[in-house]
Design brief:
Oligomer: single chain
Radius of gyration: 50 Å
Order of helices and strands: HHHHHHHHHHHH
Number of strands: 0
Length: 344
């Protein structure tokens, strides 16, 4: 061995033992366990080392931790608040009511202004405010309620009897041709005779009591209902009748399922006309030999020259007619709810 080699060998430091943390992961078998003395000697240095990590409860997965999948949104569509919907409904009702009552308000305004401006004689057409005061006075002392009750009892009695007679008769005449051929000429004669023209005949035959007044109302109301019922039955869609007959429906079932539902709108047109006629004819009948009723109130006020009271009776008759018509319209919508309106 040369001198240079000996010098290099002597100057090389001995190898330092590597710590377990710096040792490479070698698949070779691990060295034997140290002795107890060595473990006790190295324990303080191990506990004092800042690089020592606490023992984990389990294996830590390598790589990024996957995020949980997003949950589906359960948000419902936003709805308007109840207060907002109530305000919109109230505004719609106010606009509709103002539109429908604009013409009536204009008429009442003209009625109030025309007598005060001298356009008409105030004696024969007093302002609406004076008529309203007279109406309130009649309502306060009970006269208006008594006259209205008497008129309504007569009107509704005659109206109900007219419906009970005219609707079944109209169905028979419209459906069975032999009945139509037998009663057709008689119907043509009486339908062209005004009810008020026969009022003296009813008074002579039945007297001036309640019977004659109710009878004239029955006669006047029967014709609109009868004629509209006949027209409604004759104009039923033939296709519906063929389909119903192909299903072997009996005659009662055919009337119940096909004819009556199809005829209801036209029949109710006649009923509404009869409702207006029942009040108008009764007022005329009460002007002859009556002691109570709106017709009697109007006639007596005219004779006594109580013009505001006379117009108060006329306004009451108009209000009753409008309310009765609205009641019949609501009933018609209920019974013909299956029908599709033209605007839909």
């Amino acid at each position: 061995m040369s001198l240079t080699t000996r010098t290099t060998t002597e100057k090389t430091p001995p190898p330092v033992a590597e710590s377990p943390a710096d040792a490479p992961h070698d698949p070779a078998p691990s060295p034997p366990a140290p002795s107890p003395s060595a473990s006790s000697a190295t324990a303080p240095s191990t506990s004092a080392s800042p690089a020592a990590a606490p023992a984990s409860p389990g294996p830590v997965p390598s790589g990024p931790v996957p995020s949980p999948p997003p949950r589906p949104s359960l948000r419902l569509p936003a709805r308007p608040a109840p207060v907002r919907r109530a305000v919109r409904r109230l505004a719609s009702l106010l606009v509709t009511g103002a539109t429908k009552s604009a013409a009536i308000a204009a008429l009442l305004l003209l009625w109030e202004a025309a007598p005060r401006l001298g356009l008409v004689d105030r004696v024969f057409l007093p302002p609406f405010s004076e008529v309203a005061v007279a109406w309130w006075e009649l309502a306060a002392d009970g006269q208006l309620a008594d006259h209205t009750y008497a008129s309504l009892v007569r009107s509704f009695s005659g109206f109900g009897l007219a419906l009970a007679l005219a609707v079944p008769l109209g169905l028979l005449i419209g459906w069975y041709r032999p009945v139509a051929e037998l009663l057709g000429p008689l119907l043509e004669v009486f339908r062209n005779t005004a009810a008020l023209a026969l009022l003296p005949v009813f008074v002579l035959l039945l007297g001036i009591g309640e019977t004659s007044k109710i009878s004239i109302v029955v006669y006047a109301c029967a014709w609109p209902v009868l004629l509209n019922t006949i027209s409604a039955v004759r104009n039923v869609d033939p296709t519906l009748l063929k389909l119903a007959r192909s299903m072997d429906l009996s005659a009662p079932r055919l009337f119940q399922k096909v004819i009556l539902p199809s005829a209801v709108p036209v029949i109710f047109t006649g009923i509404r006309l009869a409702g207006a006629v029942s009040i108008l004819v009764l007022v005329a009948a009460e002007m002859i030999g009556a002691k109570a009723g709106l017709g009697y109130l109007i006639n007596a006020s005219q004779y006594n020259f109580a013009i505001p009271q006379m117009y108060a009776g006329i306004v009451t008759i108009s209000a009753i007619g409008v309310a009765f018509n609205q009641l019949l319209v609501a009933l018609e919508r209920r019974l013909s709810s299956w029908r599709v309106s033209p605007g839909s």
